[in-house]
Amino acid sequence: MSTKKIAQDSPLPNLNRYITAHDESTGKAIFSNAVPEQNPTQVVPGAVFRQGYVTKKFPVQINGDEDLNGYKSFLESPPGLVNSTGTVLRIVDCPPQSTSPMHRTVSLDYGIVLIGEVDLLLDSGEVRTMKPGDMAIQRGTMHAWVNNNPTEWARLAFVLQPCEPVVVGGKALEEELADMEGVKKSE
């Protein structure tokens, strides 16, 4: 299994995001053109990230396009894996025969397999094989994602939410990114 930085982009279809807003004069729903519809991509060790949306705080303030303005700043300087005060929507494409670095985020993450099959590997050695539609509720634990398929890419969707510090056995656990080159620590 490779955890090296992949040199190619995912062959899976590009994804568009459609952000809604309100017409100020009529109050009717419209589609916003504040940011491009195509998701930006970032190649990291063992995966391709597609940043769907990021908010600066929770609950989210959508009045005055505060959330959109905050998201624009994240497009200029992508956050770490987690935004410690807001939410992150990310699509992750995993290449064939790859394993992400073992890592921990201090967050509550919802992960859903969209395409392919992946193993969720915990640092205890426990593994669950996930198929399309399967969900992982990741609660601040050390984990890695494994795509064992020799030829097919896998795609997962994640919603990451900040959480209170994770304390186990009286010790606060911290974010651990291992050797995730190109991914900065969460803010």
Automatic annotation (TrEMBL):
Record Gene3D superfamilies: Jelly Rolls
SUPFAM superfamilies: RmlC-like cupins (SSF51182)
Name recorded for this polypeptide: Cupin domain-containing protein
Organism expressing this protein natively: Paraphaeosphaeria sporulosa
